[in-house]
Structures are given as C-alpha cells and as structure tokens.
Amino acid sequence: MNLYEYMGKEIFKKYGIPVPDGYVVSDINEIRPYQYPVAVKSQILSGKRGKSGGIKFAKSQEDLKEAAKTLLGTTINGLKVNKLLIERMINIKKELYLSITLDRSSKGPLLMASPDGGMDIESVPDSRIIKIKIDPLMGYSDYISREVSEFLGLSGSLKSQLGTLIGLLYNAFKKEDSLLMEINPLIIDSSDNIIAGDSKVIIDDSSLYRHKQYIFPDPEKTELENESASKSFTFIEMDGDIGVIANGAGLTMATLDALTLHKLRPRNFLDLGGTDSTDIVEDAFSFVLRADPKIFFVNIFGGVTKADTVANGIVAAKNKFNIKQKIVVRLSGVHEDEGRRILMDNGIDAYSNMNDAINELVKLNGGN
Amino acid sequence: MNLYEYMGKEIFKKYGIPVPDGYVVSDINEIRPYQYPVAVKSQILSGKRGKSGGIKFAKSQEDLKEAAKTLLGTTINGLKVNKLLIERMINIKKELYLSITLDRSSKGPLLMASPDGGMDIESVPDSRIIKIKIDPLMGYSDYISREVSEFLGLSGSLKSQLGTLIGLLYNAFKKEDSLLMEINPLIIDSSDNIIAGDSKVIIDDSSLYRHKQYIFPDPEKTELENESASKSFTFIEMDGDIGVIANGAGLTMATLDALTLHKLRPRNFLDLGGTDSTDIVEDAFSFVLRADPKIFFVNIFGGVTKADTVANGIVAAKNKFNIKQKIVVRLSGVHEDEGRRILMDNGIDAYSNMNDAINELVKLNGGN
Amino acid sequence: MGVIKMVLITKNTRVIVQGMTGHQGAFHSGEMIKFGTNVVAGVSPGKSGGTVNGIKIYETVMDTLELMPEASMLAVPAPFVRDAAFEAIDNGLKLIYILAEHVPVHDTMEIVAEANRKGVTVIGPNSPGITVPGEAKIGIMPNHIFRKGDVAIASRSGTLTYEIVKAVTDAGFGESTVIGLGGDPIVGLTFLDVIKMYNEDKNTKRIVLVGEIGGSEEERAARYVKENVKKPVVGYITGRSAPPGKRMGHAGAIIERGTGTAESKIKAFMDAGINVADYPDDIPKLLK
Amino acid sequence: MGVIKMVLITKNTRVIVQGMTGHQGAFHSGEMIKFGTNVVAGVSPGKSGGTVNGIKIYETVMDTLELMPEASMLAVPAPFVRDAAFEAIDNGLKLIYILAEHVPVHDTMEIVAEANRKGVTVIGPNSPGITVPGEAKIGIMPNHIFRKGDVAIASRSGTLTYEIVKAVTDAGFGESTVIGLGGDPIVGLTFLDVIKMYNEDKNTKRIVLVGEIGGSEEERAARYVKENVKKPVVGYITGRSAPPGKRMGHAGAIIERGTGTAESKIKAFMDAGINVADYPDDIPKLLK
Predict the structure, then answer these.
(1) Phi, psi at residue C54, to the nearest 5°?
(2) Based on C-alpha coordinates, what's the Rg of chain B?
(3) Which of A62, A286, D259, D261 is placed for a possible disulfide with D216 were both Cys, Cβ 3.0 to 4.6 Å?
(4) DSSP D90
(5) Residue D77 in contact with residue D45, Cβ under 8 Å?
(6) A338: part of which helix (H) or strand (E)?
C-alpha cells in the first residue's frame, strides 16, 4: 500500500521525525487562518507532481484559496486531486536524500542517503549515494548514522539531529512493516534544523492484518481492482480486450506474455489462486465480465485447482451471467479429460495445449 | 539491584502481567477501607519470610491494623520491616513456578517453569523443571510458551493466558535490563485466572544509567556501603577487624582469602579500581576508617594505579585523618621502589611480597 | 554402489509437518507420503494426540525430537509462519519449507537472517516446495506430473512450474530435482544457491531456470552460469508484457538501475549462453 | 622454518582502537605500540583528523577499512560499548576486545550472540585483554611484567593476573600467551575456549587457570582438562573467603545446583589433576 505524502508524514510525526507544520484539506471551506507563506501540495501518488504544476505557493489566505480552487478536483499526471497538504514554507539551505527500503539481494533493509537530494535523485551517480545494509536481527545502531553523516559531510548539531532521525526512521520502518520510507528532500533549513520535506511510504500489503488502519481503497487501483481486494483471487485491469482467467501468478503472467507475443491485447490479469471451488470461478467470471472483454480466455493447469471443477464453474458462470462472448478454454493437469468433457457437453471448446488455444484466439480476433 | 516484592509487582503491572489487587503502607495510618480478607506481607528481601512469620492474614480492618502493628518496624531474618504490601486474598487452585534469568553458560536468558511452585522450589528435582534457552537476538516467540504449557499440562484458556504472560514477562525482562524476573508462586485461582502471587526482580546495576528510577539506597547494603555507591571504588563491609584496601577485584578477593587462610578476619572489601589518584586513596582510607578496623592492610600491584601514587595517598590520609592504627603495606609493580621509599620516609613499613606482609599482620594480630 | 547424494532431500529425510491437521497440511502431507516422503510426525498446537494420514500429531516441535526430524513443512497460515519457523530453527531442524503466501516481508527477513545464522536452508515462502522424483517431495507439486530423469528445474512460480514439468515429462524427459523458490520479494533459497547445487548434482544433466520480472537474482545466476556451468541450461522469463510495476519510490530505481526487467533478465540469460524459450511449451525442444 | 601459529594475535595483526582519543584509549594504545602491537588506526567519532601516538584518527570504522583492520580494541565507556562493538562486527573485524566494566549485561548478551553468528572472537567486557610476549598485546596489561616463555595464563581477574604474571616471570619462567577473560557474568571467550587454544598452541608447555567464584566455567574447563590436556595445569581460585553472594532468587539455585562455589571449583580442578595453589605466589612453585 502506497501512502499519500500527508499520511507518511503522520507516521513520521508519530515516531518523532520532524515534519513542517501543516494541515490537510479536501474542500476549500476547510482552509483556516494560518501563518503565511505556505506551500500547497496536491496529494497524489505521483513522483513528478512539482513539475506538473501540482505544487503551488501562497502568500496569503486569498492566494491559498485561489490555489486550492485551481488544484482540488483537477487531474494531474492522470490522478485526481482530492486532498491538499498546506504547509508552512521552509527556508531551504540544503536538500538531502534519505531512505530505508527492502533490498531483495541482501534480504534485509537497505539505508540510502545522498547529499544531492531534491527532484532528480535517480540521475545522481552511485558514487554520491551511500548504501548501508542493515541486518534485520541486529537492527539499527548509532554507528550507522555516523557513517551516513560522514558521507554527507554533516557535523555538530546536524550530525546528531540526523543520527536521531535515522534511528526513528528505522524504528518506523520496522514497526509499521514498511517496504519503503523515503524522504526526498530531507531539508536542512536556514536555522540548521533537519526536516522531512516530503514522504514516500509503502506498507507491506501482507502485513495489513496487523495494521488495519491502512486498509482502505488503494488510490492507485481501479474501482474493480479495489473491489477484488476482498476476493481470494488477484485481479488487475489492463487496456486490451481479451478477458483472462488463469491459475497461478506465473502461469497467468505467462498467458499474458503469450497473448502479447501473438499481438493479442489482454483486458486483465486474473489469477484464481490455489482454491478448488466452482463459486470462485463464477466470481472471477463476474469480475472479468464487468470489464467487458471481447473474448474470454481461461487457461488452467489443474493441480490443487482441479480441471473439472473449473469446467463446472465456467458452465455455471456462462448460464448464470448469460455470457454472450466466446469463451476459449485450455485445460491441462488433474482431471483434464473430465473437464473437457463437461465443457464439450455444454458447447464450449477446450484445448489441452496452450499454443493451440492461443491460435484459436488469434483466429477469433480476426487473424494477425 | 534487588527490588522489593511490591516494586516488582509494579513492573509486572506496567507490562500487563496480572497481580493481586493491593496497596502498600509504611505506617498504620495509611490503612484504608478494603475488601477482606487480605494478606499482609512484610516487604523485606528475604526468601523465607513466610516461614519466619513475615506474612499474616486479616479478615477485617481491625485484624489488619493488629497485624500491621505487629509487623511494621520489627526485624525478620535480620531485616527491618519498613513497608507492608496488603493484598486481596486469592483462592489458590494451583501454584506454579516461572522465571526468566540470565544464564551464564548459554550467555543468554533462560526461562524456567515448574508445575511444583510454592515455597520449596529449590528442592524440586530437575525433571520437574523445564528450562528453555532464549536466544537474545531471536527473542521470545509464542512456541516457547507452548512448550512450557505442555510441560505444565495446561490447555485451553490457561494455556493462552500463560502464553500472553510469558511474552509480557520476557518483554519486561529485556526492557528493564533485568537479571531475574521470578514469579513463585504463579497462581491459578479458583476461577482459572493466572496471577503473579509474588515477585522477585533483580535489575542489572550496570544498566541503572538508563533506568534511573531504580537508583536508591540498596536495602541489602549497609549505610557505608550505600554511601560508597557514588565512589569509584567498590566497598563491602564484613565482620572482622583487618581493614583492607587493594586494587582490582581479583587481587582484593585474593587478599581476603589469604588473610582468612591465616585466620585473620577482614573488616571489609575495598577495591580501588583502575584509577591513579592520591585523592581516591585518601577517600578509601576515610571509608575504611569509619568502619573502625584494628589494623589497615594496603595491598597494591602497580599498573595503571602506580605504587608511588598510592604511597603518597597513604601518607596524606594518615596525616589528614590522624590515623592511629598500624598500616601494613605491600607494594609491587610500577614505581614500587619509589613508593616504598616514600612510605619509609614517613615511618610506614612496606613489603614487596604479599606473604611477608601477611606474616607481619599475623604478628601484629598477636600471632596464631 | 555408494550412497548417491541428492539435492537437499532423499527418501530417508525425516520430515515433520507443522500445521498438519489443517486443510492444506492434511491434504498435502497425504500426497507427500504417497510420493514416498518419510513423514515422521505432524505438529498442531492444541490438536495433538490423534493421527492424520496415519501419522501422529504432536503439540510442539520439541515433542517430535525423539524422532530426529531433519526437515519441516510449514503448512500454517501466514500470520503464524514466523513463530513456526523460529520453533523449527530453534529445535535444530535444518530444512524449512514455507508454503504460505502473504507472509509479511519483515517476518521473512527475520526468518531468513536467523536461518542463515544457524545454517538452516529455507525454501519459500509462497513456494510449491521441492520434489526429487524417486526419492521424496516436500511441498504441494502434483505427484503425477513427475518422472525420474536428469532435468533439474528451478522456478519462482507455482502452477507455471507444474506446466513446465509436465511439458518436460510429456516430451520424454524426466526430472532430477524441481525447486520452487517462491514468488515473494524475499525468499530463502534463490537461483544462485540452486544453480550451484544443480551444477554439482551428479543426477542432473540439464537445467531449466524459470524466472520472472523483479529483483536481480536471474542476472546473478546468469553470471554464475556463464563462469561455472557446463551443463546445458534453458531459461524462461515471465512478465515481458507486464506494465511497469509499482515502483519502490526513487529507492527502487537506485537499487535496480535497469535490472529487474524482463529484457534485462533475457539479455543476461542470453549473454550466459542460456537458451531462452519464448513460450513455456518450447522448453522441452530447447533441452535437445 | 614455517609460519608459527600464535594464539589469536601476532605482531602482524592489524589493530584499530575505538575511542583512541580518550584518556584510556590514548594511554593504552601508546603502551600497546611500545609492546610491538601493529596499531593501524584510531576511531573517535567527532574527533577525527588528527593523530594520537602518531596514529591517524578516523571518524568511523568504515573509514579504516582500506587499512584492512583485523582486530579492534574498544576503549569506549560502557554505555557506548554495544554500538562500538556492532560497528566493529558489521565492518568485518574478527577480534574485538572490550575494556570497559559496567557494560549492561543485556548489551553484552547481544554483542556475544551477534559475534558468535558472524564468527567473531570477543574478549571481555571488563577484561585486561590479551598479551602474547614477543608479538603483540591488545589491552591494558603492564608491559614490563612479561617475558617470552612457555606458560599460558587464563584469568577472570585484572590486577591479580598481573600479580601472577610477575610472579611467574620473577621465578624465571616466561609467558606464551596471557588472556584476561573479564570479570563480568557474561563474557565472550571463556575458560573452555581458551584452554582448547592453549592445549593446541605449540608455544605453550604449561597452563595456569585463575578462576573465581560464580558460574560454572571453571568446572567445564576442568572436565575438558581431565579428558584432553596432557600439559601440566596449575589452578588458583579466588573467593574462598567470600560470604555467599547475592543469590539470583530460586532461579540461581536451580541453575547452579551447587556449582559456582570456591569449593566446587577447587574440587573440579583437583579431580582433573590440576595442581591448585593456595596463594597466588605459590603458582610458580607448582609450575615445577
């Protein structure tokens, strides 16, 4: 789960990391007397909102109302602006970069910092970025901050502020089951205070059962996708026209790859998962149907999910939802013969070979 | 630092471990209306206060006042009763034993539990005690409690209560820098609630800089010993008559051993530590002098603490405090010749060999 | 005839199943026993005493120690995986297979760190397990798709692995060892660990690597193959058509620096002389 | 002539001193250099840039890595020991000596657990260190009491160790290695570890063990001596006259079950054929 800047900053505050004074509005009437100037920041999950005009500045309440009117409800980088974060302006002396993220290769947290913070951190060369692996059992200890401060060239009060801040950030990263806590820019202001200028926080979806406060519709997902979150299958919308239902993330992905290599455009990714129930197959069909595909393609390798169960689910869904689209099915694995027989009895063709099924899809799609 | 039962129970409460309802009084006037019957428990650091009459029971406020009058101010097992813990009585169904302690050989926490809790746990055979080593980096995890519950024969609600309790106790053990958290008896009451019937908690003295709330005069120490806590040397009173000043815990202990083997009785243990200052030597003399020894014995092996520094300290102390007792000195190591010269110039004999010095002490003590 | 060394498990490996009384534990342990796995005990806290598939259920892993278990299958739900894994590690088991998906990544990190410290091999989480045809399997791969042979397969997928195993078997080959590494961002065994084992395994003559987008394990394994592996290797990468995934902020970009894409992985495979299949069904043809 | 293996350190061992600009760090690193120790760097956060005893001071251990340090002396106050030790371990140093007394035991437990996991040797805390005459010393033992020889000494004390070393030297012997294990309840190296090293050390012909009341490490070492050591061993135990110490509740009694006393240790030594001295000064006589 990607969190908005303001939510990330709420977490920072909770753990004691300094953030600018500010408040959030979702309506122009929520604007209240404040100390100006302020920054007016669109709360969207996009990396380049500054360049796209998503951040404005206001010197007075009138200015602010004007800016809020312009931003609220507009679409920036394809994302609707529903909330603004209004923050007191900071006199920036220097911008640093700081993050803790999950590092797949070292299998633990990775701390990264650079003296070249700000918008273009990705183009900063590796030699200007310090990377420190943190052992998950050993955890954070102060020497790590000293290594960072030295690399950044900080000393005195700045060094001790950064030390405290990194300790708090690691604590937050661990306690909140985070995959990423990124502060870019990490600001040194004109009074030599270190403040988190922005936040990019990702919480591990698998951990949400112990962080229920982060369970809400994911703004990066479509309505259908969010609705599917309560289901046992995984559903992602795409912009093609072949509705796909497969089992296993790898096989589903391989199915999309094969379609694409044949110049067919999938409408969605739907991985049934490892269940064996006709209901779930029906449910999957109802979801894909709402995405209105041109053709259905069901690609099943029967293991725990048995081929005949899927066949029964397809037949039930076809009848229940009165599906008019052509349904191409490929069944292999456990109970495949029985599954194909069930489908044939109900007027649905079934292939045992994936390539054959895809050739049929190519034909139905008008040939390539 | 050994904590009184009531202090240990305050820690238990803070971490969520159930303890009986109760309150502490140090004066009979602090007794207030309460639900009877109650147990009246003398707050002394002694293992056998029950057998020695330190625990009484009261059915009414009159009873309680009577018991408090009897107990407060008396001496039990050599310890003065300054406080009473008054606790609502519990209907005991079963008494268990549970502790987490530091295990020197595995170099980590050791959890121990027994179904045979109560007063005589030390005579319970090892086969009735489960011992589980906890890895300090891995920490506590629930399976440990399941192993304990199975050994104790607990199931259902008792098992889950114990699981929670052990998790909390480990948390307290770690967070409070404890060397021991012992609950004996751990009570199962008639409604199948698990409650800590007693507490025995030791906090690591070396950790007190981060647990300042536990810095107070140690009731197990004499007044002089507690006063010495602010000093850089280590001072322990004993019941003999040879005042000992040595450097290094091992050498000081070896000095006491040698005296004892010669049937001399040390008045104290005083380890100067690893400093090199005449002031500290003077200070040490002033402490030992207050314990009024018959003879002083100074046993120094000069390293960081140089022999001539000690010699100067001895001379200064002798003059400053007008010490009348005989001072026998043994000096060896760094600057020993200079040290002996300084002493000789001031009329104090000094030996280079420990055995020679002790023989002199034997002679002064009237021979054996 | 000397003792033949297999990859990680043999038919003699003494296996326990934590969570054996659950739906998955009961079903898959039954399949494992049919496959020849030496399942010696089940562990299900609060449900001990009875039997499942004729195997006795114990309260704790500690209670099974007299049976000298060597490996454990964790068939417990994701929230209980950390505790079950620590129980297995602390009680001295040397191979731990984690079935569950959706294990919190911080839990996995701690399990893997602890396992490395104690010399314990972890397969998974979110993995179909390991199968050594003719010997044993620990996991959930369907029994009937295997035939003993000389093709070793390592894959980050589940169902797709079965698909490929079946294709390999149907084409007249057989498998020496098949390991599903698991689909999570952090898993115990990775391609590099497994390619080394396969390279040294006397029973393996050919190797199949089934990778997917994300991370750089395929790239690392490819470097190893290039420098050390003489056996023929066939590769397949899923996710060529995937839209760019959720980015891990700037940090993700800084770490990956262009690795992690299907293109990067396919290129790394090709550079290492690995034959790359376009479709799963093409893999058997490339095995020669 | 081949390379002679020493116990833990040689004159070539590259040593850094964490906390070198402090009073103890500056004084003892100077003494170490005089003794022949190859001190390559000092580390003092916030005080880097200058030199102490002609050795450059760095900000972090990481900064010293180009000098390929192998061992670190921690001359930092007790509250900073955990962090300094983790810094040394995380940066790959393989021997860590901890001078400070009053290190919280929970910190020591974590340091020792982490060190074991990474194959790092820890001496201390609350230890005078290690001295190998003719080679190097890491620690605070006075230089002038040593002479190169064949007596190896292990002790839980500080000053008493110097006393005994001097007595051994004055009696015409010399020392191969002297290790102060440290006086805290939990320390890194223990008697058992050290007796094994001494038993295998070609330069050691005689061994002295200086124990004290508390714990059961002397008893464990005695069992090892009985079964494995042919070299003559002399023992000394302090604390015979000590009043019973603070008891660790019932738990302490259950763990110790009678070990830990001076009597128990002396008996264990005697059972193992170790010659036990009544006074420190008697030790040289018993060395024959």
Answers:
(1) 80, 5
(2) 26
(3) D259
(4) H
(5) no
(6) helix A336-345
pLDDT confidence of residue C2: 43
Q: Coil, helix or strand for B167?
A: helix
- Alpha-carbon Rg for chain C in angstroms: 19
Among B281, B293, B289, B165, smallest CA distance to B233 is for B281
Q: Give B298-312 pLDDT, tens digit per residue.
A: 999 988 889 999 999
CB count in 10 Å sphere of residue D157:
29
Cα C170 to Cα C165: distance, rounded to the nearest angstrom: 8
For residue B24, CA distances in Å to A14, A336, B9, B199 come to 36, 76, 11, 15
The active-site residue out of A5, A6, A95, A97 is A97
> What pLDDT score does B121 carry?
84
DSSP assignments along B187-209, one per residue: EEETTS-EEE---EEEE-GGGGG
Assign a CATH topology to domain A92-213.
Answer: D-amino Acid Aminotransferase; Chain A, domain 1 (3.30.470)
The answer to whether C58 touches C88, Cβ cutoff 8 Å, is no
Nearest Cβ partner for C254 among A122, A209, A248: A122
Using CB atoms, pick whichever of C46, C83, C117 lies closest to residue B143. Answer: C83
Q: Do C53 and C27 touch, CB atoms closer than 8 A?
A: no
The nearest alpha carbon in chain B to C114 belongs to B138
Q: Where are the domains of chain B?
A: 21-88, 92-213, 223-365
Q: How far apart are CA A209 and CA A215, in angstroms?
A: 9
- The whole-angstrom distance between A207's CA and the closest CA on chain D is 27
Residue B220: active-site member = no
Residues of chain C falling short of pLDDT 70: 1-5, 244-249
Bridge partners of A98, per DSSP, are A113, A183
Closest by CA position to D4, among listed D132, D142, D183, D141: D132
pLDDT for res D187: 97
Q: What is the pLDDT of residue D62?
A: 97
CATH class of residue range C15-123: alpha beta
Question: Mean of the per-residue pLDDT values for chain A?
Answer: 93
State which fold the A21-88 domain adopts: Dna Ligase; domain 1 (3.30.1490)
pLDDT tens figures, A248-296: 999 999 999 999 999 999 999 999 987 789 999 999 999 999 999 999 9
The identity of residue A213, as a single letter, is Q
Rounded to the nearest angstrom, the gap between the alpha carbon of residue D4 and the centroid of all alpha carbons in its chain is: 21
Question: Which SS3 state, helix, strand or coil, does residue C210 take?
Answer: strand
Mean pLDDT of A136-147: 95
Delimit the domains of chain D by residue range. 15-123, 145-287
Per-residue pLDDT tens over the stretch D275-288 = 999 999 999 999 97
Q: Do domains D15-123 and D145-287 have the same CATH topology?
A: yes
A5 is catalytic: no
Residue of B nearest to C85 (CA): B143
CATH of segment(s) C145-287: 3.40.50.261
Instruction: Please determine, for residue B361, whether its predicted confidence score (pLDDT) is greater than 90.
Output: yes
Rounded to a whole number of angstroms, the distance from the CA of B181 to the nearest CA of chain C is 23
pLDDT, averaged across chain C: 93
Query: 3-state DSSP call for residue A86?
Result: strand
Average pLDDT, chain D: 93
Distance CA D56, CA B118 (A): 61
Complete edge-to-edge strand list for the sheet that includes strand B268-271: B234-237, B268-271, B242-246, B295-302, B326-333, B350-351
Q: What residues contact B235, with CB distance under 8 A and at least 6 apart?
A: B224, B225, B228, B268, B269, B270, B284, B287
Tell me which long-range contacts A206-209 makes (C-beta under 8 A, separation of at least 24). A206/C78, A206/C101, A206/C102, A206/C103, A206/C104, A206/C105, A207/A177, A207/C104, A207/C105, A207/C106, A208/A1, A209/C79
- State phi, psi for A32 to the nearest 5 degrees: -130, 165
- What architecture is domain A223-365? 3-Layer(aba) Sandwich (3.40)
Amino acid at D81: V
